[in-house]
């Protein structure tokens, strides 16, 4: 009799676990367009949509770790303030002369990364990724293999410098595993497969990934990044095919009307507002009653 009671209690626990919602936030890369994610995050939290786990790469990892440290509306407002500081401090140098000089001198990157590291250190919400209030997964790209490495612990400033290290623009980072790491968005800019491996019942995808710039507006930097974006776009297409058709997905996508800014930090205020608008519109649509026609 005791055995059957045990089985009944076990069955109830399994049913409870299987019915429990598990919301995973997926934050794409997108350089300065990551500012829009800050606006999206605030709207989501204001509507009671809170992550159980967070997955992010590149700029999405910056936002994701800040969110995972304390997933509250107050924290989201602080994150918007961080992006305003980004706009003021412009953490990546934009001088054409300096960038050309770096190439001529054979340096591994246009920028030495010092200003970005200082900005990240000033605003990092914790010392180690493992201290997050909800599990947070940060992806970097192993420069020697081209494979994504996923981290749930480790020194946060170093991890964020690595996952935002755009190849050729910012220096690769040594994370103490006998290799160098670069931008996590190079291989998987919307890391859906990592999110799916966490057995979510709901995916919330904050998509600010760059689209392709029209030929008339291409710059030397955007042309250099075309190959990376083409490969990442194809992998993203394949990853969307992996998403089960019956999985609850909220996809917040920042539209690209004309071109896709990378380091135009003066656009941060507009991007914050656009992120809010995209989230509010998506949530209003999702809350509308289904048509019976």
Binned strand content: 5-15%
Secondary structure tally: strands: 8
- CA-to-CA gap between the ends? 54 Å
Order of helices and strands: HEHEHHHHEEHEEHEHEH
Overview of the structural elements:
This protein is an alpha/beta fold and 293 residues long. The protein is 45% helix and 13% strand. It contains ten helices and eight strands. The protein has helices spanning 2-19, 34-46, 59-69, 73-89, 96-104, 114-123, 156-163, 192-196, 220-242, 268-286; strands spanning 23-27, 53-57, 136-142, 148-151, 173-174, 180-182, 202-207, 248-253. Strands 1, 2, 3, 4, 5, 6, 7 and 8 form an eight-stranded mixed sheet that branches. A hairpin with a 5-residue loop joins β5 and β6. α2 packs across α10. The longest helix has 23 residues, at 220-242. Mean pLDDT is 84; it is low at 1-7, 14-18 and 95-106.
